[in-house]
Write a structure and sequence with these properties.
The relative contact order is 0.06. The chain contains 24 helices and ten strands. Helix 2 (22-33) runs parallel beside helix 3 and helix 12 (243-254) runs antiparallel to helix 13 (258-270). It has a five-stranded parallel beta sheet, with helices on one face. Helices cover 49% and strands 9% of the residues. It has four domains: 6-172, P-loop containing nucleotide triphosphate hydrolases (Rossmann fold), CATH 3.40.50.300; 178-238, Helicase, Ruva Protein, domain 3 (Orthogonal Bundle); 243-336; 372-509, DnaA, N-terminal domain (GMP Synthetase, Chain A, domain 3). The chain has 518 residues and is an alpha/beta fold. Strand 3, helix 6 and strand 4 form a beta-alpha-beta unit.
Length: 518
């Protein structure tokens, strides 16, 4: 007999084997028991959560001659010949998404069932249908023949027209819990004589992201390569890391040990660990620690705000991953932002015998920045801001963090910031979160020295959060509309371009093509 992959071999053929969707199964079984069958259903949810399997089992139960508590009996003629039954029509909308295919389906809808009580159409990935195909299907969904039932399945419910949704009974499938996946995988491993460790089972369940099909595919792949599936085997084969190792990474940050953190990140780089999978794991564990801080009185070096900012920054890095930039360098710069001065363990100092060594105290950076400076420099930048300054400075500073030997903190700040406005003497940079902005503004003098040395000028700079920048920009637009001018607070100089139109001035300040004036 030809080998059958595990996800096909263990595809549920009854309601009892469909895991993680108890409420949906209970509702469908009750509809069978009460003979209250709708003419159209739509099953939505993530991949591998049982949508198509549930549709098939439900179809079998609907036409079963002797259903038991809402489940197919598995013994009648219809149940035994279900796979070859002409009354159950499966359509893959991904490859049959045109209006002609749907019109052919509609013509067949009129035909009465050959064997069972109902002719059932299961349309998988229904969101892939074209607009014309949806329109063709609409009338039939609204008034189908009494012997016809539609079951639509989709992973993108938002792409299904509301006109279709309003005519279907909707069921939303959820990601399957890790512990539920582990229990089912354990049963299958026992049936297949697969030797697997407990932590490997949990890792497979975690990597599958709530999908039974993905979990079984991964188990199948690993079982072919070794007599025993271990956590170490998974890390090597799938290019991932365990929850334990990711927890160690965050522990190093908690312990203020940057050298250990960087060493571990470099190990990920060398082993070519999948960056996106790693970031998702860091975010998952960091979020649990952040919640724990709010729910308990246990104190940590990192605060709730630290973990929140870390999560936001790492999440943002997923969207900005560039094939020309090493993703792990971005991760290093983000995580280094959460270290204080070097811990004792990170200082390599020779110690003479019998010499009394006083351990250096860890001094947290003081907030010596005057917040009033933000308002002054934003005002003064807007007083003479023009796009020509912005474009020129962007060009000069583009490679500064990469080509220049910079202090680690300053390099991290420059990599994580964006120049958004500039005048002849002022620059405004934005960063993604308040924590990073605070660190940057506390190092203004050092950063100004680096930038002015590079551009051979004497600019003053300021860092804003993206939210603060959006507010300042909107305020600028409103002031311009109301003819309110920005005057230099420290130097009295007349503003240029007073005779320009409002829209031209806005376009000449911000690096955008068009700004709508309300």
């Amino acid at each position: 007999m030809a080998y059958k992959v595990l996800y096909r071999k263990y595809r549920p053929d009854n309601f009892e084997n469909i895991i993680g969707q108890d409420y949906i199964i209970k509702t469908l079984k009750n509809s069978i028991i009460s003979n209250n069958i709708s003419h159209a259903y739509i099953f939505s949810g993530p991949r591998g959560t049982g949508k198509t399997s549930t549709a098939k089992v439900f179809s079998k139960a609907i036409n079963c001659l002797n259903p038991k508590d809402g489940s197919p009996c598995g013994e009648c003629e219809f149940c035994k010949n279900f796979k070859d039954n002409p009354d159950i029509i499966e359509i893959d909308a991904a490859s049959n998404n045109g209006v002609d295919e749907i019109r052919a389906l509609i013509d067949n809808v009129k035909l009465i069932p050959t064997n069972g009580k109902y002719k059932i159409y299961i349309i998988d990935e229904v969101h892939m249908l074209t607009i014309s195909a949806f329109n063709a299907l609409l009338l039939t969904l609204e008034e189908p023949p009494s012997h016809t039932i539609f079951i639509l399945a989709t992973t993108n419910i938002e792409n299904v027209p509301i006109t279709i949704l309003s005519r279907c009974q909707r069921f939303d499938f959820q990601k399957i819990k890790v512990e539920t996946l582990v229990d089912r995988l354990k049963e299958i491993c026992k049936l297949e004589n697969i030797n697997i460790s407990a932590d490997a089972l949990e890792e497979i369940a975690s990597l599958s992201e709530g999908g039974m099909r993905d979990a079984l595919s991964l188990l199948d792949q690993l079982s072919k390569n070794s007599d025993e599936i271990t956590l170490d085997l998974i890390e090597k084969q799938i290019k991932t890391v365990s929850q334990k190792v990711v927890s160690e990474l965050l522990d190093y940050i908690e312990e203020n040990s940057p050298s250990k953190c960087l060493e571990l990140i470099n190990d990920f780089r060398v082993r070519a660990v999948d960056y996106k999978t790693l970031v998702k794991k860091i975010i998952s564990i960091a979020s649990k620690r952040a919640k724990n801080i709010k729910l308990t009185s246990k104190k940590r070096r990192l605060t709730f705000i630290d973990y929140k900012n870390m999560i936001l920054a790492l999440s943002d890095s997923l969207n900005k991953t560039n094939i020309n930039v090493d993703s792990y360098t971005i991760m290093e710069m983000i995580l280094l932002d959460f270290f204080d001065q070097p811990n004792v363990e990170d200082i390599k100092k020779p110690v003479e015998i019998n010499e009394k060594v006083e351990e250096p105290k860890i001094i947290k950076q003081e907030n010596n920045f005057n917040p009033e400076l933000i308002d002054i420099r934003v005002n003064n930048c807007f007083a003479n801001a023009q796009k020509k300054y912005l474009e020129s400075l962007k060009s000069k500073l583009q490679t500064l963090p990469i080509t220049t030997n910079l202090d680690g903190k300053i390099k991290s700040i420059l990599l994580d910031s964006s120049l958004v406005a500039a005048s002849d003497k002022y620059m405004i940079f934005t960063m993604s979160n308040d924590h990073s902005v605070e660190n940057a503004n506390n190092l203004l003098n050092e950063i100004e020295d680096v930038i002015n040395k590079e551009i051979k000028d004497n600019y003053k700079i300021i860092f804003l959060s993206e939210n603060r920048w959006n507010n300042e920009r909107n305020k600028y637009i409103a002031n311009l509309k109301n003819k309110v001018k920005y005057e230099l607070i420290e130097e009295k100089e007349s503003c240029e371009n007073n005779d320009q139109s409002e829209e031209n001035i806005i376009n000449d300040v911000f690096d955008i093509n068009k700004v709508e004036i309300i």
